[in-house]
Amino acid sequence: MKRTWKKLACSLLAAVLLLGLAACGGGSTETEAPATDAPGSAAPATDAPETEAPAGETEDFSGQTLTVANWQSYGTDAEYGAAAFEELYGCEVEHYFISSVPELLQTLLNGGMDEIDVICINPVYIREYFANGVIEPVDTAALENYADLRTDLTDVDDVKDDEGNVLGVPWIWGTTSLFYNADVVTEEITSWSALWDEQYAGQVGFFDDHESAIKVTAMMLGQDPYNPDMAAVEEELIALKPNVRTYWGTYDDFVRAYTAGDIVIGNVWGSIATQMKAEGYNIQYVYPEEGTVGWCDYWCLVTGSDEKDLAMKWIDFCTGSDFQTGLATNGNQVYCPANQVVLDSLDDETKQNLWIYPSAPDNMFLSLQMDSDTLNEWINLWTNVKASA
Amino acid sequence: MKHAQNRPSKPREPVRALILPSAAMLLCISLIPLFMLIVFSFVDGNVTTTTGISGFTLKNFLSIFSSSTVPSLLWKSFGISFLVTVLCILIGYPAAWAIAKVVKPRNRNMFVMLSIVPALVSQLLLIYAIMQLLQSGGLVMNFLEALGICSSSDSILYSDTAVIIVLVYEYLPYMILCLYSCLEKIDDNVLSAAHTLGAGRGRTFLDVVLPQSFSGLLAGILVIFIPVAGSFVEPDTVGGPYSMMIGSLINTQFNTTLNMGYGAALSFVLLVLMSLALALINGGMKLAQRKIGG
């Protein structure tokens, strides 16, 4: 019995030494997994028979670099994101920070496909990206956590190709809903029509985004947000302009205008509202009775990526319990996890923080794909509204 | 005899090959891009290295000429550009004059450096700095409240006024530099002579200073008027719901709608209109120069 323990201790010591050497030398020696209870650690790798590790071990991707396209300060560049993944797989993760989703398509089409391996985009653009040949289907059978993801986010036609192959794996979701400064706005707000109320003239902060703008207006008018009467929507958006103080586009834009008292009501991302509340501002974030605008970001594989195996590990890691819990609970900038198991496990305080207590909004209109003509029509309408005198 | 041996030789021809680098530079950074802009303005939709050019069309220009939005944005952009240029001239002339003629010669370089500091700082940093000053409760609003003009909780941010203030702040150094380079060359004796002959300050400025600083003034106008008309960062950042300019619409075509053809056509139309405006300004300046001398 003693000899068995000694053997086990020696094996462990050898494993630790080998791990250290591998980390220092960047070699390709297979090692035992670090003591991290990470998602996907037991997942079999797709198309990688030589590197496939037995259950309980983590493959070693030392010396390999995964390039991830995502927004800056959007979870993956946090300590519990890329750094944890690097530690888990011994690889390096580099970020390409997105400035706009259409611009990323341009980047990929103009040589970026040789550099970027995995991208985070929303369903509005997934099929367009696929039509342009920059992303390829994801083998979900190779993803350990895929079965735990919310089915209303996985069973979306716009994230699949015509044959039903999955093009994007849901990661985090949220809403862009109505906010108001409860120190200034004393009445209870329950409808989007409050933004058009004359008493808020020059005090509305409206998100500079064609989709939110049109959907919010359609909801206010009682129309189908996916197929509204465009002329009526344009008329209402122009009518809203005297109330608008600024069309905010970035986190900084919003925070500056809100904290200076320039805007007291409008629409905003739930994550910003969470952050502002945590910093002590009396911001209220409500889901109007007409419905709210929802979004979900998906991970997609770049066509012909040299690091496809590692990219698959990345997607599994991003949808696993550790990272998903981190995204919902870590710091003030938190997001709703797409992993249903993780979502169910959150405590009430966390749910309140995510504005999903006691439950998530049931009349949420997700951002979905539109054909290029409709997309152009929506963007042109929004441009016309902003350009109108 | 010696003189006969050392006859002055024929002046040497300049080596024409020496202009080749400059010519190549001009070709690469000016003529080829201009040619590409014209070609792309007839392209249907977007262009990428993968998809290439899908076809040529006139619809980009037809859309522009049938649009009600484009003329109003162009008009607004030209208006703001004109106003910013005029404000830069009005503020820049006294400043350049002070540096060239009032400040002691040994301190001039320091003042020139101080005046161009904003031009050395990142454009976004300048914008955010101005935003801090102009926002509710900021320094400017507190000062205006102290003067009894408005409340400090008011703000001139998110308006055309804020856009103009930021643009003037950004471009004023260029006007000061252009004018200073001319004003410092004006001989003080000429100014003294004008005074001696009975010219007042106004007459001296119109008959002596203005004609001799025309070239700097024209350079300043060119350097300011063109880029300001195409601005999009400033109206997007500090502008309000009515502050959109033509630059924002062009930017949208390249970054949001991915309609490069329409974006190039808009840029081409802006270029032609700017060229016409500058030709008018140049002609007007020459006419004025002939009338008042210089």
Question: Uncertain spans of chain A, ≥5 residues at pLDDT below 50?
Answer: 12-55
Largest beta-sheet details of chain A: 12 strands, mixed
Radius of gyration of chain A: 23 Å
Give the helix/strand class of chain B: mainly alpha
Number of helical stretches of at least 4 residues of chain A? 14
Count of folded domains of chain B: 1
- Beta-strand segment tally of chain B: 0
CATH C-level category of the largest domain in chain A:
Alpha Beta
Using the alpha-carbon principal axes, give the shape of chain B: globular
Name of the CATH superfamily of chain B: MetI-like
Number of helices of chain B: 14
What is the distance, rounded to the nearest whole angstrom, between the alpha carbons of the first and last residues of chain A?
87 Å
Mean pLDDT of chain B: 89
CATH topology name of chain B: MetI-like fold
The CATH architecture of the largest domain in chain A comes to 3-Layer(aba) Sandwich
CATH topology heading of the largest domain in chain A: D-Maltodextrin-Binding Protein, domain 2
CATH architectural arrangement of chain B = Orthogonal Bundle
Strand element count of chain A = 12
CATH-assigned homologous superfamily of the largest domain in chain A? Periplasmic binding protein-like II
**Poorly predicted runs of chain B:** none
Determine the strand fraction of chain B and express it as a percent band: under 5%
Task: Report on the architecture of this protein.
The complex is a heterodimer of chains A (389) and B (294). Chain A is of the alpha/beta class and 389 residues long. Chain A has 2 domains: 62-173 and 296-353, Periplasmic binding protein-like II (D-Maltodextrin-Binding Protein, domain 2); 175-294 and 357-387, D-Maltodextrin-Binding Protein, domain 2, CATH 3.40.190.10. Chain A has 14 helices and 12 strands. In chain A, strands 1, 2, 3, 4, 5, 6, 7, 8, 9, 10, 11 and 12 form a 12-stranded mixed sheet that branches. The longest helix of chain A has 24 residues, at 2-25. Chain A starts with a helix and ends with a helix. The model of chain A is unreliable at 12-55 (pLDDT under 50). Chain B is an all-alpha fold and 294 residues long. Chain B has one domain (54-292): MetI-like fold, CATH 1.10.3720. Helices cover 71% and strands 0% of the residues of chain B. Chain B is built from 14 helices and no strands. In chain B, helix 3 crosses helix 14 (260-292). The longest helix of chain B is centred in the N-terminal third of the chain and has 34 residues, at 69-102. The radius of gyration of chain B is 25 Å and the shape is globular. The mean pLDDT of chain B is 89. The interface between A and B is medium-sized, with 33 and 30 residues.
